[in-house]
Design the sequence.
């Protein structure tokens, strides 16, 4: 546990020791802010129409849900940049030799790296809470659906990170790791588009695999155990494969 | 303290380490000598638990590195060929991080970090980023990292590579001062280093152990005859037949040393000292005796002899610990990454 913590600390520190952590957090905040603005102005316009028609606009339903779904897409683009260096860089510079000859188990190293990346990701999400705070300041949205949405974002990001770690453990070239991770993410995102043309059973299977499909309920403020189980088992499986990859690397030399 | 038995490592069809066995006693410094690509790094990586062996066992402090990796690694300090530094950490942060993952108790950690940085002479760079250190400092921070948890066993892969002469001397002194408390294996392809720091030498070539002994014994065993170097100012007279006539002289050749005029290498039977007769003969003739010294076979020559000359089908030299080297060339696997 201490080892995991030490490695997570080291990872987190290294993100912010270079400009990288700041650049990623900043860009993410910028993109999120742009979507926030777009959704807000759209919401203002449509709520005027809705009020004229006698309906009641709901910030949670008509704005935050959509905003978070878009945030999920930004994360898909940003996450490869966070995870691509985790293993590749250690392998390239030879520091992996330090980790693997220290009295630390592979699982502790992998969990350390996972929580390090999660730390940065949580900080990125933390910044976006400022935008949401504006909504609370000016309006009165419900906080529970927002919390559920952020929980969903965290879990979905965890899945991306576990895949990113796996891909990064396969190569010592950061760029290769980054591009491959991005391709895998994109595939997991668009896989349900194929599903639409498949038969009913095919569609069900494909939409179950899609990472983003499971996020929709979270964005609407619903915490369903089905999705929790999916995300947690996805993360576990990704980390398990990473452990296998690190171990097999060792045998191959 | 360290026991290696029949260690073998294959990468696909290439055998990098082939049936290597040796022991290192507590407090000893063992030199691991071999040309590049001989399998030194691979053997060390197996010993430190970085990679498993294809065959054989490696025991460190009585623990099998494969069966009990965590416990064994606690007792090992390892400096890889390239010091494993994180460029964006300061020296202090880095050493502190290593102390954490090596399991130094949190109460002692700060003291240990300070002590080790002082001992390896990197304390003045404590707040500098590792990326900005010179090669010599990087190497010493690497050494600090290996020492931080006060391990029983130190495994150093070319600890003086890339250092300037003054730093090399400092590092060797440091390593020598560590012996006794620590058992040390150090690899190198610089021969004087071995005779200056190590009590015993393992010479490895193409993955096989070709010799194990003390540096002095290795030199003595391989020396067939004594050779003297003399430099004579004979004023144009013919020196060769005169010196060749001295009893006990087996052969004499003009020295091919550059810039030396009148230099000769005189070979005599082992155990006979012909210096007196040589000097008397020269002085009696009225020639000037400019230099007279025994020529020692250096470790370098020993090394070349054991790593290049022998073939399995030829009778080998008298030393019984020296086994024939392999004939098939093995591509360099030492630096396969």
Sequence:
């Amino acid at each position: 546990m201490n080892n995991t913590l030490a490695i997570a600390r080291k990872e987190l520190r290294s993100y912010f020791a270079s400009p990288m952590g700041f650049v990623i957090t900043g860009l993410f905040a910028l993109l999120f802010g742009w979507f926030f603005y777009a959704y807000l102005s759209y919401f203002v316009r449509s709520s005027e129409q809705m009020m004229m028609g006698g309906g009641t606009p709901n910030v949670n339903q008509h704005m935050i849900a959509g905003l978070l779904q878009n945030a999920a897409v930004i994360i898909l683009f940003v996450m490869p940049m966070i995870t691509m260096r985790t293993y590749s860089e250690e392998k390239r510079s030879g520091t992996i030799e330090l980790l693997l000859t220290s009295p630390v188990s592979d699982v502790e190293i992998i969990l350390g790296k996972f929580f390090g990346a999660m730390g940065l990701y949580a900080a990125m999400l933390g910044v976006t809470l400022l935008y949401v705070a504006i909504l609370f300041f000016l309006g009165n949205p419900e906080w529970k659906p927002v919390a559920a949405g952020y929980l969903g974002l965290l879990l979905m990001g965890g899945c991306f990170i576990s895949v990113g770690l796996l891909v990064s453990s396969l190569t010592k070239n950061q760029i290769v790791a980054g591009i491959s991770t991005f391709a895998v993410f994109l595939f997991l995102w668009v896989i349900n588009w194929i599903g639409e043309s498949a038969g009913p059973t095919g569609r069900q299977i494909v939409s179950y695999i899609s990472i983003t499909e499971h996020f929709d309920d979270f964005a609407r403020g619903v915490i369903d155990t089905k999705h929790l189980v999916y995300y947690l088992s996805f993360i576990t499986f990704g980390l398990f494969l990473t452990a296998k990859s690190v171990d097999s690397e060792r045998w191959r030399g | 303290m360290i026991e290696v038995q029949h260690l073998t490592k294959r990468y696909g069809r290439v055998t990098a380490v082939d049936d290597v066995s040796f022991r290192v006693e507590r407090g000893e410094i063992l030199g691991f000598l071999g040309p590049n690509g001989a399998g030194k790094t691979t053997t060390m990586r197996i010993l430190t638990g970085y990679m498993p062996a294809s065959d054989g066992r490696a025991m460190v402090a009585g623990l099998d590195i494969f069966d009990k990796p965590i416990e064994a690694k606690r007792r090992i300090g390892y400096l890889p060929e390239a010091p494993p530094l994180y460029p964006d950490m300061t020296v202090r942060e880095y050493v502190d991080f290593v102390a954490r993952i090596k399991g130094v108790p949190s109460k002692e950690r700060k003291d240990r970090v300070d002590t080790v940085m002082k001992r390896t002479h990197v304390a003045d760079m404590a707040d500098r980023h590792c990326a900005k250190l010179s090669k010599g400092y990087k190497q010493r921070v690497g050494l600090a990292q290996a020492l931080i948890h006060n391990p029983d066993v130190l495994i150093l892969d070319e600890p003086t590579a890339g250092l300037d002469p003054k730093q090399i001397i400092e590092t060797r002194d440091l390593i020598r001062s560590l012996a006794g408390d620590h058992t040390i294996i150090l690899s190198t392809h610089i021969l004087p280093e071995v005779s200056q720091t190590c009590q015993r030498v393992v010479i490895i070539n193409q993955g096989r152990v070709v010799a194990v002994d003390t540096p002095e014994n290795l030199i003595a065993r391989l020396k067939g005859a004594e050779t003297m170097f003399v430099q004579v100012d004979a004023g144009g007279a013919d020196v060769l037949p005169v010196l060749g006539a001295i009893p006990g002289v087996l052969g004499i050749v003009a020295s091919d040393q550059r810039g030396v005029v009148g230099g000769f290498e005189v070979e005599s039977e082992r155990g006979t000292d012909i210096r007196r007769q040589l000097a008397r003969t020269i002085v009696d003739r009225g020639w000037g005796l400019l230099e007279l010294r025994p020529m020692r076979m250096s470790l370098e020559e020993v090394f070349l002899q054991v790593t290049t000359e022998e073939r399995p089908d030829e009778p080998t030299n008298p030393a019984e610990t020296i086994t024939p080297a392999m004939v098939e060339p093995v591509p360099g696997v030492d630096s396969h990454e």
